[in-house]
Amino acid sequence: MRTVETSQAWLKAALGLVYPEVCQLCNAERATTDDGFVGGQCWSQVRFIRPPFCARCGLPFAGEFTTEFTCTNCHELELHFASARSAVVAKSVVLEAIHRFKYSHALWFENFLTDLLVREAGPELKDEKWDFIVPVPLHPLKLREREFNQAERLAAHLCRATNIPLNAKILRRVNPTATQTRLTRDERAVNMKNAFTVRPGISLNDLRLVLVDDVFTTGATTNACAQALRRAGAAAVGVWTVARGL
Ligand SMILES: [Zn+2]
Ligand SMILES: [Zn+2]
Questions:
Q1: Which residues lie at CB < 5 A from ion ligand 2?
Q2: What is the Å distance from ligand 1's center to 119 Cα?
Q3: Which residues lie at CB < 5 A from ion ligand 1?
Q4: DSSP string, 107-162
Q5: What is the pLDDT of residues 129-182, one digit of tens each?
């Protein structure tokens, strides 16, 4: 596993040598390191999540809602987080950037994805009272294979932007769950059951924690994390992800 520092150095060196100033999503427009290697055309396809959305899970709705509401899914589920929010809709350029960042080691998308998360979550988190930002952990086997935890990298940037400390140690993934992309909502929930634990001997009494992940799909992963944190005494768990599946 690379440390954040060496991987950052590796990233800078690799970027300077290998990548011309071209949008890494469409290869058809100019984009610099500062743009996160995503050009204006591709940026224009990003859909930020704006109200109205479910107060609990963050699912956006079309139409007019003047009062706070909770969606029907949330009424049926046992949710352990107080609320979940995402910066953007998980489709088109965003989904591609996330997939390539995670599965193809396309680290140059980190700035783009971080930018989306920080500009939406940053101001909100600063106005609230949180003790730690906790990334959704990878199982050690998967971490060895991928060499980095995308959630931890995104969380670290959010910590710098909000001055909320990072805590990547308290939560562990103990069950190397298979990829969930083909599973239904119920299958995902079963798959995730007992996938996470809090490290023994740690008390989270009265702590307010923000979980960070790249994508929120059915919420099975973040809900299982939140359950483990609440069981260990956390007073509240909030969730922020870069993107939200619809
Ligand atoms: Zn582009
Ligand atoms: Zn909901």
A1: 54, 56-57, 59, 71, 74
A2: 20
A3: 23, 25-26, 29, 39, 41-42
A4: GGGHHHHHHHHHHHHHHHHHTS--SEEEEPPPPHHHHHHHSS-HHHHHHHHHHHHH
A5: 999 999 999 999 999 999 999 999 999 999 999 999 999 999 999 987 666 677
